[in-house]
């Protein structure tokens, strides 16, 4: 039975143990996910979830899922600090909104394509130029209005 202490010059304590000022045991649960050279990761997770909750969550998970869980917690903690009210949900709803806008844009573009194909096959492009320009300038499909709101959040 060896004492778990590290020799001087051995690895420094992990970022988690350093922040909560405890001895970093060789079997430290945090050490693989919160290396000493990335102190900000644990700092944000600790601030939002608390070290003991993070510890509890990691303990409940099988080892192969812990890394993903840590990434998720770090992401969520950072989002929560940026946006204390909505956190990740703010980012998710913003992206969902962008998806909806882009799907609308795609549908409009496809509809316009069909419209252009139909009008060019039924009439000569040159002879019907007046009518054609009319359609373009009045923005038959209101794509411009849709684009405006795309990056609003
Ligand atoms: Zn540690």
UniProtKB/TrEMBL annotation:
Belongs to the LOB domain-containing protein family. It comes from Acacia crassicarpa (northern wattle). Pfam families: LOB. This is LOB domain-containing protein. Residues 12-113 form the LOB domain.
């Amino acid at each position: 039975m060896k004492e778990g202490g590290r020799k001087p010059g051995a690895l420094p304590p992990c970022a988690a143990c350093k922040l909560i000022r405890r001895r970093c045991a060789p079997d430290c649960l945090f050490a693989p996910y919160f290396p000493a050279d990335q102190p900000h990761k644990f700092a944000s997770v600790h601030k939002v979830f608390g070290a003991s909750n993070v510890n509890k969550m990691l303990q409940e998970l099988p080892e192969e899922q812990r890394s993903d869980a840590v990434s998720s917690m770090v992401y969520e903690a950072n989002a929560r600090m940026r946006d204390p009210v909505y956190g990740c949900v703010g980012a998710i709803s913003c992206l969902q909104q962008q998806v909806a806008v882009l799907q609308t844009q795609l549908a409009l573009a496809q509809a316009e394509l069909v419209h252009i194909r139909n009008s060019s096959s039924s009439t000569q492009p040159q002879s019907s130029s007046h009518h054609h320009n009319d359609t373009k300038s009045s923005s038959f499909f209101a794509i411009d209005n849709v684009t405006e709101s795309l990056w609003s959040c």
